[in-house]
Design brief:
Blueprint (H helix, E strand, L loop, with lengths): L2 H16 L6 H31 L1 H7 L8 H27 L3 H23 L8 H14 L1 H25 L7 H88 L14 H30 L8 E4 H7 L1 H7 L4 E6 L6 E4 L1 H17 L5 E10 L3 E8 L6 H6 L17 H11 L3 E6 L5 E8 L15 H9 L2
Parallel strand pairs: 2-4
Antiparallel strand pairs: 1-3, 4-5, 5-7, 6-7
Helix pairs in contact: 2-4, 4-5, 5-6, 5-7, 6-7, 6-8, 7-8, 8-9, 9-12, 9-15, 12-14
Length: about 500
Amino acid sequence: MSAHSSSTVWQRVIAWLHRVPISDPVDRRNAVFMQLLLAFQGLRTPLMKIYLLATEWPYMVATFFNKTVTGPVVSITVDLGTDVAITAAAWLGLYLIRRGKFRQAVRQFLATQLICGVVVYATFGYKVTPGDTLLLISLALGGLMLGRRALWTIYITILLVLATGMTADYLHSTRAAHDFFAAYHDLLFRTFSYALITIILDRSIGALREALAESDSHRRQLQHEMLERELTQEQLLHSQKMDAIGRLSQGIAHDFNNVLGIVFGFAQERYRLDEPGADRSSDALALARALLGVETAARRADAITRKLLNFSRHDTTNIETFDVTQATHDLELMLRQLFPNPVQLMVETPADTLLIDFDQSQFELAILNIASNARDAMPDGGRFEVALSREGEGGVLLTLRDNGTGMSEEVKARMFEPFFTTKPIGRGTGVGLTVVYNLVVQAGGDITVESHPGEGTSFHIRLPLSRRRHGAGANHAMAPASALANVWAR
């Protein structure tokens, strides 16, 4: 195998070791090393035992197992049993880490090693047991992987393990009655030596964890500052957009109102039918009704220009108390003119009066904006529904629903942003839904949207009922279309 192939295989192994579902950053960093250690321990222990059984077994029985306090049979059984237990704990720990249970994996492995240590020292005795490497490994792993509490717990456990071995020597000594202090004289030395190692590990590990915690704190602070900076930039951009809307809307409103003044002037010509000797033929009356419709549409256009100024905060809102049921019903005629013939329009309103505190022209503008978007979402026809209902005792619910193309989650998340539009250049400005959102929120209501690609869109607008409802001072505003129509219906 070439060096490049070996490097590629090793990189894949390291990448696999990093792919563990562990959220804690310290545990996630330690997981790679711990997996390698557990795999090494799970292979080393059985392979070493197989090698010793094949090459050194008679020598080990003569020089080691025959000298244990419990005899060769018990000591050989304990030796093989503890090797199997440690091997199983190593592979179980590797499995638990792959499942994201890092601390559980380390705890069970260390607990298995320490329990095996107790059994080995109790079986072999303190003097015969070869070294204390297993105990030192457990002490270091506990501190590095689990922290200070585990470090000092393992330290105390190690002293108990050593005391167990010394007790086994004391109990099996032929001169037990005379060698009590001699059996335990190493315990004091081991207590201080292991304490020194534990203190060094404690301070080193504590410094590393404090440095990591400080680094993590700085990282979170930096992320917070970056988020605040992004929010500030978004607010600045939004302010610049609003300022641009204000300057644009002022110019549009000024020029457009000049044109509307001319339209109003021509519409007023219908009052010449009230003069003596005027022609009151059916054609003249039909023309007068047409001029009435022109004036009604012009009033709607005038409301739109006022809303542009209001949106940029250069105009004030004209709050009035009006019947939202009647206002919605009166908009049906204009909605039918807005939609082409292939679109089916359905308007459902309750029979009772529902009064709200709102600018009626703004209310009409909000519905027309949403209806205009629905029309563009149904180029081949469809259905647009307007449903008004009472919601509880203190509110009304206005639902505007179409079965058009719908919106993706990305578009829906940005639909109320100023100047955001998915329409081609020249087809949309990106301020219509922003106006609707601001109007509803300023009125104390809320607006929610349900939409999926290919399944249409539903707007749910909730507005509070008027606090002056049923009061004598309520201004029951009537839409211009209905008021003027009553003049010419006589």
